[in-house]
Amino acid sequence: MKEILWQTLEQLTSRAGPPGFEQPVVAFLAEQFAEAGAGVSVDPMGNLYAALGPQDAAPHLMVSAHSDEIGGLVRHIDKRGFLRFDPLGGLSPVLLVGRRVRVAGHPGVIGTKPGHLQTAEERRTAPPVEELYIDVGVDSAEEVAALNIRVGSPVTYDSPLQRFSNPDRASGKAIDNRLGCAVVLQLVRALSGVALQGRLTVVVAVQEEVGLRGATVAARQVDPDYALVVDTLPVGDTPEVAAGRMPGAIGQGPVIVLAAAGRTAGHVAHPRVAAWLEAAAIEGGIPFQRATSIGYAVTDAAAVHLRGRGIPTGVVGLPRRYSHSPVCTFDINDAVAAVELLVQFAGNMATHRDFSFLQ
């Protein structure tokens, strides 16, 4: 499984897919889910649905991951061919200066004032995103137009997946959440041909990074009995994170996220779903971690659990270092364990009957 996940992830991360421009990612995944034996459809917004099991079976479980990556949009092209851009998702200025990017598929760099001319203050701080610009290697707006780059063209990091000397670890762009996409695809591959004691719909949702938009639509469309969201999760196992500030570490197994919240949205895991996840991990001998991420992370679960009468929802986190950077770092063994956990959880669907809040 490990090597299959690597191959899938290399394919997924090599494709550009910022919010609203996920088409290359969705097209690849649609083909892969169909080859795995799922019934596949894509809605007008770009959400992908992969169905397994009889359509009238119960319970109905939804497992989702999001397809988009953080990126940007070209805002302005000046007469010398330099591009200004707006962020799509959580782009941090300090992680942008001097980086390689792709603009509508063309290579570029985010320009920086020469170090020789920077003031002491400029060496310590990054300019705001609105002051940054992209150089695509031409000298005029006309040459930019000849590249089919225009206002509204998508921008993504140019940072291919790179494995460390430790072959189980790698870094690159779009790990959030192409790693989750690889996991849910592998789940369907593992369950293909298995007689489920219920119904499974895997969703790959668009536009998570700009407000959980695809998942809002998808949860309403699927209307499941319960749901799991698979997403990468910032962890605190690096020197700059104060002890206890962010629980978790890469290489220690997937994280059962008990509560998460950002500035405007959040989610507290449904107690039964969280308990079923933990029971599945223990039953399968699968390593796992428990964590909260209040104040610094939010997932599609924040949208999913609010649909209809309320959907009991849990989160399976894939630990990552250096979140929302072009060098997001992870351990593939966490993804392997996450697939095993989801397979075990799906295998226990016959026991998932009581969704009441009161124990």
Question: What is the topological layout?
Answer:
Blueprint: H1 2-13, H2 23-35, E1 39-42, E2 48-52, E3 60-66, E4 71-77, E5 82-88, E6 100-103, E7 106-110, H3 120-124, E8 134-135, H4 141-146, E9 154-157, E10 162-163, E11 169-172, H5 175-191, E12 199-205, H6 213-222, E13 226-234, E14 255-261, E15 266-268, H7 271-284, E16 289-294, H8 301-304, E17 313-320, E18 328-331, H9 332-347
Parallel strand pairs: 3-12, 3-13, 13-17, 14-16
Antiparallel strand pairs: 1-2, 2-12, 4-5, 4-9, 5-8, 6-7, 6-9, 7-8, 10-11, 11-18, 14-15, 14-17
Verbal overview:
The chain is an alpha+beta fold. It folds into 2 domains: 2-69 and 173-351, Aminopeptidase (3-Layer(aba) Sandwich); 71-157, Peptidase M42, domain 2 (Elongation Factor Tu (Ef-tu), domain 3, Beta Barrel). 27% of the residues lie in helices and 26% in strands. The chain has 9 helices and 18 strands. The strands form 3 sheets. Strands 1, 2, 3, 12, 13, 14, 15, 16 and 17 form a 9-stranded mixed beta sheet that branches. Strand 10 and strand 11 (169-172) form a beta hairpin. The radius of gyration is 21 Å and the shape is globular. 50% of the residues are buried. The mean pLDDT is 94.
